[in-house]
Amino acid sequence: MPITCPFRRLFRICLLAAAASLAGSAMAAPGERLDDRYCTTCHGADGRGNEAVQAPKLAGMASWYLRLQLENYRAGIRGAHPGDIEGLAMQPMAAGLTDESIEDILDWIGGWKVIPATPTISGDVAAGAALYRTCATCHGAAAEGSEALGAPALAGQNDWYMVTQLENFLAGARGAHPEDIRGAQMRTMTAVLGGEQDIRDVVAYINSLTARMVE
Fold it and tell me: What is the SS3 assignment for the chain?
């Protein structure tokens, strides 16, 4: 059950403050090399994600997608909207990354063991399957993702993270920046979702695709 407003927002603001503090401690002093390998602080030592701080699973995330998101965070294209609490926490983490740092992170994460996330969200899978037909246009019938269309894989990702991001897209907290072309496309696609129940249903269906990955 998601934390309801205003307590949900207050909880996330506290997480934001903690993340900003971590980002500050990770920044290098003048003349020193930035230690860019602090992702595990929030995303977990094995990159499986951390629901407590809404940090998604990185292990198995396509390098092209991760690169784009890090670049967007660094440029302030993502993580600037006041309603995107998790994004606001992530943006300072990426702000000091160089292109070399990003490549180092991609190489590092690429070596992590990929284990599909454990489902935590339930919903009407049949209803979710019908809603997912729109998603499949870009993300693929098996939610495998498509680099050509700029759509990340969804199967195997943390379901609680997908719920939060769909909520953000619907609310305009993500994908509203004029330079976030992919995000704007995603906002248009999420218009088929009528609210929380639709979000839970489509994520429940994606969970069913995740289950097929380990069969």
Answer: CCCCCCHHHHHHHHHHHHHHHHHHHHCCCCCCCCCCCCCHHHHCCCCCCEHHHCECCCCCCCHHHHHHHHHHHHHCCCCCCCCCHHHHHHHHHHHCCCHHHHHHHHHHHCCCCCCCCCCCCCCCHHHHHHHHHHHHHHHCCCCCCECCCCECCCCCCCHHHHHHHHHHHHHCCCCCCCCCHHHHHHHHHHHHCCCHHHHHHHHHHHHHHHHHHCC
CATH number for region 125-213: 1.10.760.10
For 187-215, write each residue's pLDDT tens digit.
Answer: 999 999 999 999 999 999 999 999 887 66
For domain 7-109, the CATH class is mainly alpha
pTM: 0.86
The reply to whether 125-213 shares the fold of 7-109 is yes
Summarize pLDDT for 15-52 with one digit per residue, the tens.
555 555 555 555 544 444 445 788 998 998 889 999 99
The structural domains of the chain, with segments of one domain joined by +, span 7-109, 125-213
